[in-house]
UniProtKB/TrEMBL annotation, chains A, B:
Database matches in InterPro entries: NRD, NrpR, NrpR_dom_sf, RNase_R_HTH_12, WH_DNA-bd_sf
PANTHER family with a match to the protein in the record: GLOBAL NITROGEN REGULATOR NRPR (PTHR41964)
Protein name per its UniProtKB record: NrpR transcriptional repressor
Superkingdom of source: Archaea
Positions of the NrpR regulatory domain: 85-323
One of the Pfam families matching this protein, by short name: NRD1_2
Residue ranges constituting the Ribonuclease R winged-helix domain according to the UniProt record: 11-76
Length: 326, 326
């Protein structure tokens, strides 16, 4: 039985085949998967297609590609109909569980966000990423640049492009969880910064009630102004709020200082406020930890007019693979 | 004490004044309010400014405009800091409460969505709106066209533009509520239509956890394909899901037939399914009523490349003011 993640990809491939007329090749399926938010290269797509063939859900059709079988149609319609529609919070919990990053030893696997850009934009992108990190609106100064043709996890970076991987703030939640603190990443939002201080949230979306990642919503609606914040100290940037039980507050604070020693930054409110937190309601008996989002560097690139494809919560990656930006 | 709606506008005006350098005129404030999603004309803005003057929060500064007073800064920062950040569900409940539409007599006030377009696009827009209505993806065939310079509720339609008002599906929720059924408009989503049948939800956002209207999110991310549905019978359109207690199911069904007699359409699942509803989880003891969104006609205009400004849940309006499209 494949894991939930693989399961979702298999079903999406069946959907693509079902929605098309006639056979479809692996390259075209991979492209369509990417368009739908599944980060899968051609090679990995072929691997998934073989799994589907083995189960009798698809079959080869000449040299050109695959078609879906009646059994595959059945499978798609019934057994897993609700599978595609996952709330972002489910994915968050999967990744919190997968993280093994330990700030005490600065080792283990961290959650990363990935952003694809054109290779020709790389130099000016790196400059901007540095500025966002230095100003404190990212999570970590660490970065991995993956060149065209190389594989990033299951993916081949397309020709002419590079993939950038940066720390995702969910790493913080993973660390709190592993230290036994029940943590609930509640809202993704937009926070107004004034004179380099987080002033108040102006928009939020609950991760538990959305199938679209709030960070992508705010970036694609052009609601961020990270560049303006770098220049003037004021504007709108992406941030997250998680809730923990009030009685875990002291433990959480110790973990936050450890995270800072391990160069994990971006937390701008660590249970200092009782509720509400900068305008956002917090549940009774809970307190809120707010951090900037690891997507802010990529939002800045988008604001510059650079063509970006941002995939929050892409994967876990060993921290050794990421190098300091400096 | 002004109502919550007015309160929010007053605070937003204070914010605009606070964020600007020096005095600001009413026209510029009105423009900025519109940009921030507050649907207020210049005349109405002047009225609100007088309210702020009376309270000592703003004062006139020469002929050019208003400035915020220290008292106004205080007011803005403390008393009402959480006011701007409202969940969409709060606004939904305000409008459900305001609706007085009675399908039995076809009278009363219905909730409307408003869309501003350029006047030169009006003719081809009307054609498309008709097609969306005839295909069954709108709520009602009724429409109000408000010409430039005329007032729509508190607003003057800007020069060169017209405002289109159509039935909002929240009207259905208002009717259920007024007949004593506890109704909870839960998700705004995107539904895949195949051969003119609603097949499954592919994305949802919980109205209770978002400060941005999901309909605006899906339209601005270009995720709808209403035109394609009109042409081929398949594609993605906007829809809503509300939950009611299972034991209110029979009552709700009677109300739904009354709504149909009063030309209120678009409900494609009226508690037929037990949970989940086309891929979306429904709470235990509840059943779901799914309807197409009143925003679909405006989504179709956006897909045509027409410049639209869509304001879901804009106002309540007497049904007599809207005329049948035919």
């Amino acid at each position: 039985m494949p894991d939930a993640e693989t399961q979702r990809k298999l079903i999406e491939i069946l959907r693509i085949l079902s929605e098309s007329n006639g056979e479809v090749g692996a390259r075209k399926i991979a492209e369509e998967l990417n368009r739908r938010g599944y980060n899968l290269g051609e090679r990995a797509t072929r691997y998934h297609l073989r799994m589907l063939d083995e189960r009798g859900f698809t079959k080869k059709h000449g040299y050109l590609g695959r078609v879906i079988t009646p059994l595959g149609e059945e499978e798609m319609k019934h057994a897993l109909v609700t599978d595609r529609l996952g709330f972002v919070s489910t994915r968050i919990e999967e990744y919190e569980f997968k993280t093994t990053f330990d700030p005490a030893t600065d080792t283990g696997e961290a959650v990363v966000n990935i952003c694809y850009i054109n290779k020709s934009d790389l130099d000016r992108s790196i400059d901007t990423l540095k500025r966002v990190v230095e100003a404190g609106y990212a999570i970590s100064p660490r970065l991995k640049v993956v060149d065209e043709g190389q594989e990033i996890l299951e993916n081949d970076v397309p020709e002419g492009q590079v993939a950038l991987a940066t720390f995702c703030s969910i790493t913080i939640d993973g660390v709190l969880l592993k230290r036994g603190i029940p943590v609930n990443l509640k809202y993704g939002g937009l926070i107004r910064v004034k004179d380099h201080n987080a002033e108040r949230f102006t928009e939020v979306i609950d991760y538990h009630g959305t199938s679209i990642n709030p960070m992508n919503v705010f970036v694609s609606r052009k609601m961020t102004s990270v560049l303006k914040v770098l220049e003037t100290g004021s504007g709108y940037v992406l941030a997250n709020i998680r809730e923990i039980p009030v009685n875990a507050r002291e433990n959480a604070r110790q973990i936050i200082s450890q995270l800072e020693s391990a160069d994990i930054h971006g937390i701008f409110s660590g249970c200092e406020n009782m509720r509400p937190l900068l305008g956002v309601p917090i549940e009774t008996g809970k307190c809120g930890i707010a951090s900037y989002s690891g997507i802010n560097p990529f939002a800045a690139l988008t604001e510059m007019g650079i063509k970006t494809r941002i995939i929050p919560l892409s994967a876990v990656m060993n921290v050794n693979e990421l190098k300091r930006l400096d």
